[in-house]
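Predict structure. Input: Heterokaryon incompatibility domain-containing protein, 98 residues.
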Amino acid sequence: MCDELTRSCSIGRAFFISEKGYFGLAPSTTQLGDRVCILAGGQVPYILRQAGEAVLPDNRTVRAFKLVGDSYVYGIMHGEAMADTEEGEVSLERWALI
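Output follows.
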């Protein structure tokens, strides 16, 4: 029963280890170079792929990203990433989601 549940929860998912050593499950379409991101108001970490640049309404140019999908990342599912931000290990960025 447990094996069946594990298999059904991981359909379309792939195991990964990030550059910082975090591991988890992400969409099977995730590629090397994609980013694990915490989005303001998001319930889980997300996988994003850089997609060039975007021009904001105030004419500033920022990096643009496409959403690959949601993920499970051991060690940042319960707000731990915000503590890393306060310690300077993780930075906050402004960019466009396209």
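The helical segments are 2-9, 80-86.
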